[in-house]
Amino acid sequence: MKGAPWTGMSIATYTTKIQETSKLREPRSQYNYAARYQVERVSEYASSIGEQATLYFERRRNFDLNNFRSHMQLLLDRNAPRIAPNTLSTSRILEMAKGLDETFRIPDAIAHAGYRAVEPHRQCGRYERSYVEALVEKLWRGPTRRKNIREWGFVLMPASLWGGEFMGDHPWLNELPRT
After folding, report:
1. How many angstroms separate the CA atoms of 115 and 10, rounded?
2. With pLDDT > 70 as the criterion, what percentage of the chain qualifies?
């Protein structure tokens, strides 16, 4: 694995202001929503390099693989605009237990970097952006026709976070390269 090429994506969800009645308050729904964002981006990446996408999700209690596959198939059947259907088959969305493959360390590192960058440390209240800064060159900029790291490589959910109050707390995010 050492020296192997890779490209990463980080999906960060902002749950603080989710309305009480929103389905996104449920951990499974929140995880699946972020996973859908990831599937969209991975399918576009696979399309950009002319390959089929294979996605592995870590086996966890709040993820139902069959339910998620069914949802992704429904989106494919409806021609969801952000999913590249020529690269995605729901049979290639898989689960794997933690620790079985060392390549899982890469998405773990990306997820941790994103988390530390936007979530203050519980004791000192500081944001640690150096991890994201160290990985930023490996984050995907997007397909040739629409390059934007904020849409493809370091994604905030909802996208409206790229403005307003959230950016006031995280002004350094404006320094991320767009392309």
Report:
1. 9
2. 97
